[in-house]
């Protein structure tokens, strides 16, 4: 007599485990498909920085505040360089004659210095995060932004 | 060049040697065994990685290195956690944790020291900087080791608690990289920059190497750091009470 309830109990536990596993799998699949889609759906403004002769160009990069931006750094020098900014909490090694991508923000309006860590005395620049109104004015070619 | 090299050495070497000193302080009898395994495992892996640097860097739209570094930080934290949650002291686990961190910080040093063409005058300043930076980093690590040994005379869990902080640091660093790759949200800073100790100061470097200090951490970084620390300390609560 005691064997029947035991089998039933074990079967229930197995069912419960398989159900839980199926649920976990479903949630993972949903999250796995939604998360990258959400990331791809985001419209991120792209900016470019060039490093040549250990100098950043443009030395001052203006970006909109309050939103994430993508910065493509192209190192035209044959030597590697490390893009670094403590203010933006970013650092990235870019090999010689190659490019790297850094996502920054959303930033508060303000100035964020950056440098090349291997040549900090000359490889210097700053990123200026402009408030919405100033950024719109800059886009429209107005004087308010300058 | 000289000062820049010293600063770079401090930034890259200090986290590795501080972690090594904590792991050795947790198991002083295994000093040689851990060092030997770090050398045996770390040197060939670092060489192999240096050979594949360009290929790694080119993956995923120029973000391959970041992805690899995030994995290394994750492995480092995992190995430290595994060490903390086991009763036996596994020398290979300790060595693997150091090697995982060495692959990140060591690769930056290899790049700066060996793959960067320089004039002869610069080279002299460079190697002097290397000697100074290594000397300072190693001195701090040795002092840390003796300090933790001394602390353990009064409280046996001192090294373990500091290793919990170290695991939290590695997770926080992995989160930082995932932000940079835009694979994780919560990148907004919790508080404004440099309110406390400057992260780029000597003390900032030391606190970052030991505890994972950031002067302007992101929300996700702070959350990941706190959660890792709380979970590890909670899992070791019995030992902490004893």
What does this structure look like?
Chain A has 2 domains: 1-41; 46-140, Sandwich (Immunoglobulin-like), CATH 2.60.40.420. Chain A contains 2 helices and 9 strands; from the N terminus they run αβββββββββα. Chain A has helices at residues 3-41, 132-140, and strands at 46-52, 55-57, 60-64, 69-75, 81-85, 90-94, 98-104, 110-116, 124-130. In chain A, a hairpin with a 2-residue loop joins strand 1 (46-52) and strand 2. Chain B is mainly α. Chain B is 79% helix and 0% strand. The model of chain B has no long low-confidence stretch (mean pLDDT 88). At the A-B interface, strand 6 and strand 7 of A face helix 3, helix 5 and helix 7 of B.
Short description:
The complex is a heterodimer of chains A (146) and B (242). By secondary structure, chain A is of the alpha+beta class.
What topology does this entry show?
The complex is a heterodimer of chains A (146) and B (242).
Chain A: H1 3-41, E1 46-52, E2 55-57, E3 60-64, E4 69-75, E5 81-85, E6 90-94, E7 98-104, E8 110-116, E9 124-130, H2 132-140
Chain B: H1 2-26, H2 31-51, H3 53-62, H4 64-84, H5 91-114, H6 120-154, H7 158-180, H8 202-211, H9 219-235, H10 237-241
């Amino acid at each position: 007599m005691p064997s029947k309830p035991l089998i039933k109990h074990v079967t229930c536990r197995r069912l419960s485990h398989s159900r839980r596993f199926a649920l976990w799998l479903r949630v993972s699949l949903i999250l796995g498909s939604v998360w990258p889609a959400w990331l791809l759906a985001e419209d991120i403004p792209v900016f470019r920085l060039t490093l040549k002769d250990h100098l950043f160009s443009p030395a001052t990069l203006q970006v909109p505040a309050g939103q994430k931006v993508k910065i493509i750094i192209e190192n035209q020098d044959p030597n590697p360089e490390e893009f670094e900014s403590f203010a933006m909490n970013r650092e990235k090694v870019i090999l010689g004659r190659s490019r790297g991508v850094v996502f920054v923000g959303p930033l508060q309006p303000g100035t964020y210095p950056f440098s090349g860590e291997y040549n900090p005395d000359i490889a210097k620049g700053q990123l200026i995060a402009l408030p919405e109104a100033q950024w719109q004015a800059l886009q429209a070619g107005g004087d308010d932004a300058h | 060049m000289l000062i820049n090299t010293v600063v770079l050495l401090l930034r890259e070497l200090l986290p590795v040697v501080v972690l090594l000193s904590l792991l050795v302080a947790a198991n002083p009898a295994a000093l040689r065994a851990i060092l030997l395994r770090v050398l045996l495992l770390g040197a060939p892996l670092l060489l192999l990685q240096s050979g594949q640097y360009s290929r790694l860097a080119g993956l995923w739209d120029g973000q391959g290195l970041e992805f690899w570094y995030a994995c290394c930080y994750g492995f480092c934290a995992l190995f430290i956690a595994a060490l903390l949650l086991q009763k036996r002291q596994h020398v290979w686990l300790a060595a693997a944790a150091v090697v995982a961190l060495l692959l990140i910080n060591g690769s930056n040093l290899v790049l700066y020291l060996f793959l960067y063409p320089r004039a002869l005058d610069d080279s002299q300043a460079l190697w002097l900087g290397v000697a100074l930076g290594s000397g300072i980093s190693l001195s701090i690590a040795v002092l840390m080791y003796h300090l933790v040994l001394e602390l353990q005379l009064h409280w046996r869990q001192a090294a373990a608690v500091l290793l919990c902080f170290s695991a939290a640091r590695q997770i926080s660093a992995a989160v930082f990289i995932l932000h940079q790759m835009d694979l994780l949200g919560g990148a907004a800073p919790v508080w404004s920059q440099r309110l406390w100790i400057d992260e780029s100061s000597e003390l900032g470097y030391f606190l970052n190497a030991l505890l994972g200090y950031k002067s302007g951490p992101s929300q996700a970084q702070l959350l990941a750091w706190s959660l890792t620390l709380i979970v590890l300390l909670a899992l070791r609560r019995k030992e902490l009470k004893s």
